[in-house]
């Protein structure tokens, strides 16, 4: 795009060497899914896709292709010294200026960081900060070792899973973490850090997803293949009424722990209010959503909950979920809030049909983005009746029938 955001051209990564030549001779090259991109100081563009890096010149001509061993490329950063930093689903890599080698970075003891890399940010002093599912790391300028960021007592991150990094105009580092939200770096002496827990101070920990770094410019569409799950503990009010609020708190904590074992550290798990939880599963194929829903349902229902008085009780949960984007053809038609509303409607259908089950929307067909938006605002039953909605339900449950019969 140009300075006025007008599309001026297209680039399409190709393979390299003989494989590239043969592929071009036989058929058009298949499309490549781009997961990350960045522009270097010399004006060249780097694209990351799967385990490959593609460099393009100012004229859109592909200059080279580099491979790395980190699996899916998640984040790219072109630093001021000309280095390319590569965050993957299995650690951090670096391409130094003037070289063609993609080097895996290790920690001081020599062991590599085996973790999802969710964020990369360059500080004014040239150091690079790395946010991962296993904590926050820093690489000093002109060095090559990943140093874990240690913190002062009582001034650390509320959760080790870092999902976002940002240096503001005042050069202050902001760190977003799973569940516990936004933190601001208050002090850094080159060895230890002290963080202020912004979300906690303002009372927005466990608020709806989107209340943290999203307010500062993060975009959900950077994460391809999201699934939004809403969980509601069945008959939870009876727990508080019959066993007291301490028992209710114990059940909530254990439900949270069980869901955390089903999902990954890099997924988002937050209290959605009352007895509801929201989970946003990242980089999750739509075809796996039903499997995750059933695993989560079983994790809650198959084992009793321990109470502080030594007793125990059993509870089930109801689940509604919706995939994002709902339409790959019209991916920008619906925002994440609209998708959550669809998941909520699916959850309501499960509860209306007897609870202890799941209902989900995997995808939708629509002739236009406007039509998709219009359908999303109608009752779920009406949309399902149109035949343009791909709906799945837990085996033997009446949730799907409840949706289908709602219009009768």
UniProtKB/TrEMBL annotation:
One annotated GO molecular function is: diguanylate cyclase activity
Going by the record, the broad EC class of this enzyme is transferase
Top-level taxon of origin: Bacteria
Q: Which SUPFAM superfamilies match?
A: Calcium-dependent phosphotriesterase (SSF63829), Nucleotide cyclase (SSF55073)
Q: What is its EC number?
A: 2.7.7.65
Which residue intervals define the domain GGDEF in the entry? 224-363
Swiss-Prot/TrEMBL catalytic activity:
2 GTP = 3',3'-c-di-GMP + 2 diphosphate
SMART domains from the UniProt entry: GGDEF
Protein name (database record): diguanylate cyclase
The organism encoding this protein is Candidatus Accumulibacter affinis
Q: What is the lineage of its organism?
A: Bacteria, Pseudomonadati, Pseudomonadota, Betaproteobacteria, Candidatus Accumulibacter
